[in-house]
Design goal:
This protein is an alpha/beta fold. The protein has a single domain, classed as Vaccinia Virus protein VP39 (Rossmann fold, 3-Layer(aba) Sandwich), CATH 3.40.50. The protein has helices at 9-15, 21-28, 48-51, 65-68, 108-118, 138-151, 161-164, 190-197, 201-209, 216-223, and strands spanning 36-40, 57-62, 77-81, 94-100, 119-130, 134-135, 175-177, 183-188, 229-241. Strands 1, 2, 3, 4, 5, 6, 7, 8 and 9 form a nine-stranded mixed sheet that branches. Strand 1, helix 3 and strand 2 form a beta-alpha-beta unit. It is elongated and about 55 Å long. The two termini are 28 Å apart. The relative contact order is 0.18.
Length: 244
Amino acid sequence: MKDLFSSNSVRYKQARPSYSSQIVKEILRHVPERTFAWDCGAGSGQFTQLLAPYFEHVLATDISEAQLQQAPYFENVSYQVQAAEQTTIPEQSLDLVTVAQAIHWFDFDVFYKEVTRVLKPQGVFAAIGYGLMDVKDAAINRLVQQLYFETLKGYWDSERRYIDELYQTIPFPFQEQTVPELHLHYQWTGQQLLSYLKTWSALKHYQDHNTHDPLQLISEALQAEAEPLDVTFPVLLRVGMREK
């Protein structure tokens, strides 16, 4: 798994979209037993904190200690620095395994072997994410699209394509469960939107190779925005059950 966010852990926690309780509820419809859950690639615990109220114990892991240090405290949550593909979790001990906005960075074959090892029979695996946002303001949305598809073209890691393909092309060796189409809706200030754009991994790659600020145009446009912006992200969600 790549570690692209340790150097930006505080900004990442503050600027990234939060997940909705509706996502968790859709996953939990398929999880009758709720003793032990593992949130891998947990980062700063944005999804972990939504699992905490529903399980006796939650283990959250990430390869970035800096990210985990930003995570909130819960009595029933343990944070550990571990790679997703090889853990110390006992065999067949988990009711649920989740990965939020991270599975596209994993070695699928090795990771799924580990998931199968640690899930109980009929335990549940869920891959969660969000795609490219849509901004209701047409002019701002065009600038976001230009930044994403043109300016930063060639600077996105190859794994990003799985998000562009809405996680429909990731390998998924589980009994797929039906889930509804979901979205995340926000009203953001121009500064909040700009802060989110600054967390894009491709932006960091661009800045490593160029002196020009790729955010200049959109930054100027956002500074002129007095009203909150309606921002919508498509939710990427695949839920599956381990074979008996």
